[in-house]
Amino acid sequence: MSGALSHLESLFTGDETARTMIVSPEILAAVTPPFSDDDKGRRLGEFRAWLDAFLEGAEVSVAEDPFNKPADAMLARVAPVKEGFWSIRVTDPNDTPGIRCFGGFGGKDQFIALTWEYREAIQDFSQEIGSIRDAWTDIFADDRPFSGENLDDYLTNYRTV
Amino acid sequence: MIDHSLEKTSMTISRTTGLSEPSGVDKISAGTLGYISARHRQRQYDLVVREFRRSGISQSALARRLGKSPEVISRLLARPGNWESDTFSELVFGISGGIASYRIDYPLAASAGTSDASGMVFISASSKSTEVAKPVELSDAKTASSSLLALVAA
Could you tell me if A11 and B17 are in contact, meaning their C-beta atoms sit under 8 angstroms apart? Predict the structure, then answer.
């Protein structure tokens, strides 16, 4: 991973946001319009809408158990839980496998997203976890993702699923 | 909290959101429509979940009110979905007796420099027993930009 991280702003509300999302250059490139007029563009538009919803303080459904989560969860912990990494789960459009984006919290309502991939391209989740671990360490060295005692420490406006 | 390894710096910014208003007969890209549709789904979901939370009723009670199975209600409340209009209406009414009201805003007009645009398509629910949710209002339309603060590792 190269380049600076960026504070993402909502396309519609700018920096007047309830939460903070910091993204890698790769993610910023993927979710910055214009979005193309094809399935890929639609999927990336959905991805950006997820991120903007987070920024604007929208309700987020959260799964804490990586091994027992409903398909509908919007945000889920990834194993091993103690490492503090999470998966943003973009599951629309319905006729696609969606997108997964990985990162960790920097504090309450502050998410740092570093890697992403089309779901169908993820063959081995442990490999993705290795990628996010490496990306995080490259940037933050020994600083690990924020770790709270319960979901209230991570988020406002969430719903456990 | 991770903050000591980051430093904020300014960047030259563009005031366009990267999305443009529909114009003439130009086709709107599938990506733009995907973004707009997803945004709308999320707003509906927010409204329903917040109304549900305020109401204090249980999922099973809502299921009984609407004559649906608890599993269906659980699935509907699990994430934003491409609900039919009737489903949205039934959820809002079933939860609190509310009805949805609509307002259309023109956020892309803001990025184009025109005035009185305040944000986004907003849906509210009206109910005699609950407070109406408030939209995100921008006091200055010019703040609806895509400016970025670059964060660089120290």
Answer: yes
As a whole number of angstroms, the distance between CA B32 and CA A35 comes to 6
**CA-atom Rg of chain A in angstroms:** 15
Contacts of B61 (CB under 8 A, 6+ apart): none
Cβ within 8 Å of A, B 85-104 = none
Chain B residues lying within 8 Å of A44, measured CB to CB: 31, 34
Taking each helix axis from N to C end, the angle separating B30-55 and B85-96, rounded to the nearest 10 degrees, works out to 20
Residue in A7, A10, A12 to test binding to B, most B beta-carbons within 10 Å? A12
Helix, strand, or coil (residue A99):
strand
The answer to whether the CB atoms of A14 and B147 lie below 8 A apart is yes
Q: What is the pTM of this model?
A: 0.81
**Interface ipTM:** 0.91
Check: CB of residue A61 under 8 Å from CB of residue B76. Answer: no
Rounded to the nearest angstrom, the minimum Cα separation between B87 and chain A is: 18
Please answer whether residues A6 and B153 qualify as being in contact, where contact means their C-beta atoms are separated by less than 8 angstroms: no
Q: Which tens digit of pLDDT belongs to each residue from B88-103?
A: 999 999 999 999 998 9
A154 neighbors A105 (Cβ within 8 angstroms): yes
**Positions of E strands within chain B:** 6-9, 99-103, 122-126, 149-153
pLDDT digits (tens, 9 = 90+) for B3-45: 434 433 333 333 346 788 898 999 999 999 999 999 999 999 9
Count of C-beta atoms within a 10 Å radius of residue A60:
27
Mean pLDDT of A104-109: 97
Average pLDDT taken over every residue of chain B: 72
Q: Could you report how far apart the first and last alpha carbons of chain A are, in Å? A: 33
Q: By three-state DSSP, how is residue A114 classified?
A: strand
* Contact between B18 and A143 using a beta-carbon 8 Å cutoff: no
